């Protein structure tokens, strides 16, 4: 399964259908190979898997403050709705694709996002199973992240699911997966005067296999990301703008249930137990 990742939450931001990311859902379950030993401090000791070498990573004070404010803002989110504009720039082919969509989230672990233009597609994660609705091929595709006897995921955290939500990630989790700084040039060009964080995936992480750099534009009134730009290892540039972002609004449970499709559609199931054989 491609990694359909919506991002930010004090750190990661991304939406990558259309082949921009290659990692599958099973790999998202693998433990991260980079361990940050100091979670809150402005300095973290990093041990890259297999190297045995520890390198002191200094996090700029301003960056640490932004991450902390984003984490605090995320803690207050029970539900969230947003629309998004999506642009995929395949630089090697000089091809730009633009799409529109919307997302819904309910804490701690349920997510729905869909492309509302054509070809329409919908993704639903109920904490255990990812449902992918593809009207163009008349298919409902199921990706089981947890077996029926396993508890649903507790949160959409980085490195835990194929949907690390951009809103609500912990500062420690961000620093575990990324080297984080500010992009002052992008800040100076932004008419909305947002903070812009530059995230570089750490060597050895699954994210580093797909992305070289991620930029997050942070609204300094609500301390939430409103734009994410992902530069991947295939030289594609994906930009997602969220607008408007509504928090703690009514979101029906039915939005996160297994989608109903016509009886003549093909149902394709990818069971976790089968993948482990």
Written description of the protein model:
The structure is a single chain. With 277 residues, the chain is mainly β. The protein has one domain (25-275): outer membrane lipoprotein receptor (LolB), chain A (Clam), CATH 2.50.20.10. The chain has helices spanning 25-28, 61-75, 171-177, 184-189, 206-210, 272-275; strands at residues 34-36, 43-48, 54-58, 79-90, 95-106, 110-115, 121-125, 129-134, 139-144, 178-182, 195-201, 211-219, 224-232, 236-247, 266-270. The strands form two sheets. The protein has a twelve-stranded mixed beta sheet with strand order 10-11-12-13-14-4-5-6-7-8-9-15. β1 and β2 form a beta hairpin. The longest helix has 15 residues, at 61-75. The relative contact order is 0.23. Mean pLDDT is 79; it is low at 1-54.
The overall average pLDDT, rounded, is: 79
Largest sheet: 12 strands, mixed
Helix/strand order: HEEEHEEEEEEHEHEHEEEEH
Principal-axis shape equals: globular
Strand order, biggest sheet?
10-11-12-13-14-4-5-6-7-8-9-15
Indicate the percent of residues in helices: 10-25%
Name the beta content range.
35-45%
Number of strands: 15
| The CATH top-level class label | Mainly Beta
The radius of gyration over CA amounts to: 18 Å
Return the domain count: 1
Low-confidence stretches: 1-54
CATH architecture: Clam
Report the CATH superfamily. Answer: Lipoprotein localisation LolA/LolB/LppX
The helix count comes to 6
CATH topology: outer membrane lipoprotein receptor (LolB), chain A
SSE class? mainly beta
First-to-last CA distance: 17 Å
